[in-house]
Description:
Low-confidence stretches of chain B: 312-317
Strand content of chain A: under 5%
CATH superfamily of chain A: Cytochrome c oxidase-like, subunit I domain
Low-confidence stretches of chain A: 1-7, 535-542
Number of strands of chain A: 0
Number of helices of chain B: 7
Structural class of chain A: mainly alpha
CATH class of chain A: Mainly Alpha
Number of helices of chain A: 16
CATH architecture of chain A: Up-down Bundle
Helix content of chain A: 55-70%
Mean pLDDT of chain B: 92
Bound molecules: heme C, protoporphyrin IX containing FE, copper (II) ion
Largest sheet of chain B: 5 strands, mixed
CATH topology of chain A: Cytochrome C Oxidase, Chain A
Number of strands of chain B: 12
Strand content of chain B: 15-25%
Shape of chain B: elongated
Helix content of chain B: 25-40%
CATH superfamily of the domain at 99-205 in chain B: Cupredoxins -  blue copper proteins
Oligomer: heterodimer
Distance between the termini of chain B: 63 Å
Radius of gyration of chain A: 23 Å
Number of domains of chain A: 1
Amino acid sequence: xxxxxxxxxxxxxxxxxxxxxxxxxxxxxxxxxxxxxxxxxxxxxxxxxxxxxxxxxxxxxxxxxxxxxxxxxxxxxxxxxxxxxxxxxxxxxxxxxxxxxxxxxxxxxxxxxxxxxxxxxxxxxxxxxxxxxxxxxxxxxxxxxxxxxxxxxxxxxxxxxxxxxxxxxxxxxxxxxxxxxxxxxxxxxxxxxxxxxxxxxxxxxxxxxxxxxxxxxxxxxxxxxxxxxxxxxxxxxxxxxxxxxxxxxxxxxxxxxxxxxxxxxxxxxxxxxxxxxxxxxxxxxxxxxxxxxxxxxxxxxxxxxxxxxxxxxxxxxxxxxxxxxxxxxxxxxxxxxxxxxxxxxxxxxxxxxxxxxxxxxxxxxxxxxxxxxxxxxxxxxxxxxxxxxxxxxxxxxxxxxxxxxxxxxxxxxxxxxxxxxxxxxxxxxxxxxxxxxxxxxxxxxxxxxxxxxxxxxxxxxxxxxxxxxxxxxxxxxxxxxxxxxxxxxxxxxxxxxxxxxxxxxxxxxxxxxxxxxxxxxxxxxxxxxxxxxxxxxxxxxx
Amino acid sequence: xxxxxxxxxxxxxxxxxxxxxxxxxxxxxxxxxxxxxxxxxxxxxxxxxxxxxxxxxxxxxxxxxxxxxxxxxxxxxxxxxxxxxxxxxxxxxxxxxxxxxxxxxxxxxxxxxxxxxxxxxxxxxxxxxxxxxxxxxxxxxxxxxxxxxxxxxxxxxxxxxxxxxxxxxxxxxxxxxxxxxxxxxxxxxxxxxxxxxxxxxxxxxxxxxxxxxxxxxxxxxxxxxxxxxxxxxxxxxxxxxxxxxxxxxxxxxxxxxxxxxxxxxxxxxxxxxxxxxxxxxxxxxxxxxxxxxxxxxxxxxxxxxxxxxxxxxxxxx
Lengths: 542, 317
Ligand code: HEC
Ligand code: HEM
Ligand SMILES: [Cu+2]
Ligand SMILES: [Cu+2]
């Protein structure tokens, strides 16, 4: 990152080069970069585990690794990808970088707490990484009891300590965003003038603050039962294993919205910019984000339709799950409507945003299938569920992350990357993704259970297809790494506003100066007040 | 390897009903996915930069439209919900004449007992065209009894009984999978469900998996062996209540509450007798937690159940 300094003005990147200037910084933009580097490392680690999983599944006998190793692989894949990559991804990198800039502030409300959150993240990460290096953990990322609390012989305690600590970084970030958004908006920036990226982060922060303590306590109880033998979840010592599932999903269902809401915010920014249109249904979009955050807390029981919970509880959770899907559907319709009569420029960020819209649609609609009780009985804990959540989390959230990376990279680094390569990578990712995960829907309906390293031979062809797709997908992630690195050294200078975008972050120079703005901007228009599309209409009409 | 299956066999009365619902959902998915894909692609090509298509009358607000695309999905999902709930309910309520088969899951095998006394491991033989109710429990962690061809699945939980029922409609052998991750041997905790013609099933019952003693007679033996008889005498003169006619009846507890004597209650009475003490009795029954395993517990329950039937029979006289 340090290599990027050829720009002449003083900015957040070139006002100090020493290690200390990075590790003790309180600049939200530098902290964002610290997070960017850290989560990229975790993404690579998680990717390595995925590679081992897919290679093992090439053959029905699972010859590559032993059963125990395989179990550790999917567990550590899930833990790294969910807790250490996807949950922090957009909020901690782009939220950190952009929330103050988009509202015209100099920094977040609590810059030191912001730095603290990164250290907490690193300490949590170190615990978990150590647990992995010292032999790993094999409970699944869901830590179901009594397996995790009494039967697993692996490093459960250090892992849950790591995740426990990590949770605080998430809480601190959420807290910081909420206070910042309430208190530090530029003059004239009323709530309904805020970009939807901000609304999305506000909603996400609410979930982070309300949900994370629950998972922290739950995992602490697992550790407690494991160490002290106090009967909480294990029925042999008087506990209730299903209680764990309620507590776990009370956080972990809302957590899926921590992962996807920020990506939805990104898509709103990108789609408007590249269609030169005001967002269709701005208010509905803002309300939808908040509705998702609130109602997301009421549907956790849909992960437990076959756990023996009562028929009526199942029905209630099913009905609520259908309801929570509606605001997501509204969002997809509004993005599509935004394109209508726009002026669309096919540049890389919008290709990723379109990828998000398409894949999230499939992910969301298959969520409806899972909310349908009798069908879920059949596909629960099969590859159908795996395909569903990868469509949403990889097809949706990671695509959104890639859109953000390509949209704000010029702002963060002051450099442009290669358009040709980046479009190629977007295409490869889209194709590779579908080839990897679509066959898993079929496998799941056929009945292939998840977390199996050996399987009946008739499932092999679809598994081989999926692994082939995964190698294409992997390529799609490696290419951006190279052209983005290349752009740091050789990329053209971006200029302040290469996409000609609205939004306060584009008013300042790229990379931005340490305090973001020379003088506090004053806002006197709504978000996404793109007028050049309208201008073009006159040209076309006349 | 080149015979690629794309759809699972339907081998139970439930299967075709689940699949019908699934196809309806697929129709909805295909429709909306196509709508969005076509919408995004069509708009972005028609209104690409430089195209001469008219942009007159572009707006960013249309409350009517917002209501339309909120209410239509709402109606569709609520329709699905009603349909699904009915089926889910039916999948939970076994027909009255269902035969019981007992299953214990443990790391990493399925131990199955038929009331007639037959025992099998990782295989489940059932007759065609007869409703079967499985009574499931686990000896250690949570497992899950999944038969894809029947579209049934149920978690198998330590410390309680869950049930799952089906009626097979096609003779054959089907996969049985453990669907809840349970440790090292999870992927090996698989087996076969074998559906036979009823007369073949009768033959099989008297074959080599037979133990010669029915579950309830094994239970009766245990009842003597563990000294239950010394307190639970049939003429109600022991220190504990007579268990005749108990099963399925309401029991009054010391606390004044009443509970129904179902399987979970009997189980708890044996493993944790002080948890619910019967009114007018002293809590003197010792726990049998470390002496009786899950399979024996099921035999005892089957015995207590048979005592329940005795009384209804005598009442009828
Ligand atoms: C020391 C005497 C004693 C022995 C031995 C004993 N019980 Fe009991 N049992 C009792 C008493 C007293 C009660 C009623 C108080 C209570 O609920 O704990 C009882 C209650 C029960 C109940 C609940 C009855 C009801 O009417 O609700 C069941 C079922 C039961 N015992 C089964 C067994 C079985 C099976 C065994 C053998 C494994 C056994 N008991 C051994 C004394 C005994
Ligand atoms: C459109 C609304 C959605 C509905 C109705 C829905 C429904 C469901 C249901 C019912 C399950 C449980 C399936 C089972 O275990 O049998 C499930 C699993 C899952 N969903 Fe969704 N979902 C939706 C959106 C999302 C989103 C937005 C995300 C992530 C960003 C997500 C991620 C997941 C994950 C990770 C799991 C599996 C967890 C596990 O067992 O490991 N879902 N979904
Ligand atoms: Cu969920
Ligand atoms: Cu298992």
